[in-house]
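FW: tagging you since you asked about this chain on Friday. Here's the raw sequence from the shared folder, copied in full. Didn't touch anything.
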Amino acid sequence: MEITCTQMDVLISFYIEGDLSKALKEKVTEHLKQCPACRAKYDIIKSMLDDLKSSLEDSKEDEVYSSANTQYKVFQNNLSAYVDNELPAEENIKIKKFTINNKKARKELEDTYNIRKLMSESFNKTKSEARQDFSKNVMRQLNPNEDYNFTFHPVLKAAIAFVITVLILSAIIVFSLTL
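HL: got it, structure written out here
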């Protein structure tokens, strides 16, 4: 049985975390080799996770001078408000200037936009498929002999995933500010 792109949306996170059976992992690997769209999604998610790990390691190793460190902390504190267009014009200009002159800030801004886009797409997709238990159906189609006992409603799953993502991102920002 071939894996569809819709099924891949569910399986990518399990694949990255190594939570798939050997047979299913091989099917996902084969699909990623054949499907450029799913490969692009996988690459974006994997790249963001790798960058996140790298930035956490870099932040421990890199000690930047006080002035630059302070500017970067201001940037990080205002990043979410900047992305959501909630800053006054003067603060927006400061963030733009800092981002233009700082490679690490540009990367963080790009990652923030990518995360926001992926979260929005995922939420909208889950919302539109709320009438069916999507994950349960995907797993049942791929492994009809195994019984998966998913008890959460898909909208609740999406809400939990969204909250967890926001909490993780907040923790990362708070952690990076304490360094």
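FW: Residues 1 and 141 are 9 Å apart (CA to CA).
HL: agreed, and The chain has one domain: 5-178.
FW: great, closing this out.
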